[in-house]
Write a structure and sequence with these properties.
Elements: H1 3-21, H2 25-35, H3 40-55, H4 57-67, H5 78-93, H6 99-113, H7 118-138
Helix pairs in contact: 1-2, 1-3, 1-5, 3-5, 4-5, 4-7, 5-6, 5-7, 6-7
Length: 144
C-alpha cells in the first residue's frame, strides 16, 4: 500500500473518530498517532486531509447532500459520509491530484471498510460532486 493510500486511510480513521465523538481534532490526532505509526510525509498528508475536511465540513456536506439525490444526508452511513468528505475535500482543495485518482482511492476505502453497496454509492455521489467542483473551476462542460 502506497504512502498516499495509507495517508487517506489514516485521515478517514481520524475524521470518523472526530465525527463520532466530536472531541477536539487536536486531541483526536494526538491520540491517533499514539497507536499508529507512519512516515512524516504520510502523517502530514493524513492530518491535512482530516483537518481540511473537518474545516470545510459545511461546504462538503452541502455538496455531498446535493449529489446524493435519493438519500437525505443524515441517512448516509457515517463511514461512507467520511470517505466522501475526504474525497470531496481533495476535489475542492487539491487540484493537483487527478479526480480519477481521488475517486478511485475513495472507492477502495469503501470496499475495504464499507458495506457491500458502499463502493457504488460512493462512486456515484463523488462523480456528481466532481462534476460540480472540478468542472466549475476548469470551465469544462459537465461530462467532459
Amino acid at each position: 500500500m502506497g504512502k498516499r493510500t495509507k495517508a487517506r486511510e489514516c485521515a478517514l480513521q481520524m475524521l470518523y473518530q472526530w465525527d463520532m465523538t466530536r472531541e477536539p481534532m487536536d486531541r483526536v490526532v494526538g491520540l491517533f498517532w499514539q497507536v499508529r505509526g507512519g512516515t512524516a510525509d504520510m502523517k502530514t498528508m493524513a492530518e491535512r486531509l482530516a483537518r481540511g475536511a473537518q474545516g470545510d465540513l459545511e461546504q462538503l456536506d452541502q455538496a455531498i447532500g446535493a449529489a446524493s439525490t435519493r438519500w437525505r444526508f443524515e441517512r448516509i452511513a457515517p463511514l461512507d459520509r467520511n470517505i466522501m468528505r475526504i474525497a470531496s475535500y481533495e476535489l475542492l482543495r487539491e487540484p493537483g491530484t487527478p479526480s480519477a485518482v481521488i475517486i478511485d482511492e475513495a472507492i477502495e476505502l469503501a470496499k475495504r471498510f464499507g458495506e457491500a453497496d458502499s463502493p457504488a454509492f460512493v462512486n456515484g455521489v463523488l462523480d456528481a460532486v466532481r462534476r460540480k467542483m472540478r468542472d466549475k473551476e476548469t470551465g469544462a462542460s459537465p461530462g467532459e
